[in-house]
Design brief:
Largest sheet: 4 strands, parallel
CATH class of the largest domain: Alpha Beta
Shape: globular
Strand content: 5-15%
Radius of gyration: 20 Å
Number of domains: 2
Number of helices: 9
Structural class: alpha/beta
Order of helices and strands: HHEHEEEHHEHEHEHEH
CATH architecture of the largest domain: 3-Layer(aba) Sandwich
């Protein structure tokens, strides 16, 4: 995926024989329900390794992991995970819930967590290409320094937006935590259907009552429910890059995250005007 590729390229540098290609097309988005194609399987067969976030994010790879586990290298060790709670309705018409906890895998939306990903990438590359391990280590140090500077920018922005109430999907959980935003209303990553759709009225009621200052939406993936929340809350839309889409020429992890911070600052500052 694009954010991992951008970070990996910073560690690989310009002198390595290794190259990092996308397994999935950038327009796939979050691969919640993705199924591997014949072309995907061929790319995996030809690759020396596949860098993975893990925590169920790349569930579509599970069948291949069973046959070639050493090819799939998880790079997220040491991340400070956010636990998510999924609700399974015990009754079709009731509100009793069974709670299943899982880790939110969108760690790349935080420079602090991206530092951990860089460490995992360095370890993976050094395993694949031991003769260049020293160069990967140097590149990783430089990448971590850039990410630390980006984290400082996030901390500075947090001083101006901390405590502001927003609606957001789990894709922005790490971003919200870094900036001290209060996610007063969690939006599902997908359209809801069937019994889950019965919760829509409750979501819209909360949208009216929450006094939101913004609704964080994923660029190119806004749902009907997000549109309804925007109407009911009267809060402005803050359309944000999740870094998954294809990068323009010259774009880096840092430049794309800065565009996210600028969008949040501009939208919240606009909300504060009389």
């Amino acid at each position: 995926m694009t954010p991992i590729r951008m970070l990996a390229q910073e560690v690989i540098g310009e002198t390595s024989a290794l190259a990092c290609d996308l397994l999935l097309a950038a327009d796939v988005g979050c691969p919640h329900d993705y199924s591997l194609t014949v072309r995907d399987k061929r790319k995996i067969e030809e690759a020396a390794a596949v860098l993975c976030i893990g925590e169920g994010y790349e569930a579509f790879l599970d069948p291949l992991r069973k046959t070639a586990p050493d090819k799939f290298l998880t790079i997220s060790a040491g991340c400070d995970w956010i636990e998510t709670c999924t609700h399974g309705h015990a009754h079709d018409h009731g509100h009793d819930h069974a709670h299943d906890h899982a880790r939110n895998a969108h760690v790349w939306m935080s420079p602090a967590q991206a530092i951990k990903l860089v460490e995992g990438i360095e370890k993976a590359l050094s395993h694949l290409d031991p003769p260049r391990a020293e160069q990967y280590a140097k590149n990783a140090v430089a990448a971590r320094e850039r990410l630390s500077a980006l984290r400082a920018e996030a901390e500075s922005l947090a001083k101006r937006v901390r405590g502001r109430r927003v609606a957001a999907s789990e894709a922005f959980a790490y971003l919200a935590r870094d900036l001290g935003l209060e996610v007063a209303l969690e939006l599902p990553d997908h359209e809801v259907h069937g019994s889950a759709a019965r919760d829509t009225a409750d979501v819209l009621r909360k949208a009216r009552e929450a006094k939101l200052v913004g609704v964080l939406t994923e660029r190119g993936a806004r749902s009907k429910l997000a549109d309804a929340v925007l109407r009911e809350s009267g809060a402005p839309q803050i359309d944000l890059d999740t870094l998954i889409g294809e990068s323009t020429a010259g774009a880096t992890y840092g430049s794309r995250m800065r565009s996210v911070y600028l969008a949040i600052e501009a939208a919240l500052a606009e909300k504060e005007r009389p």
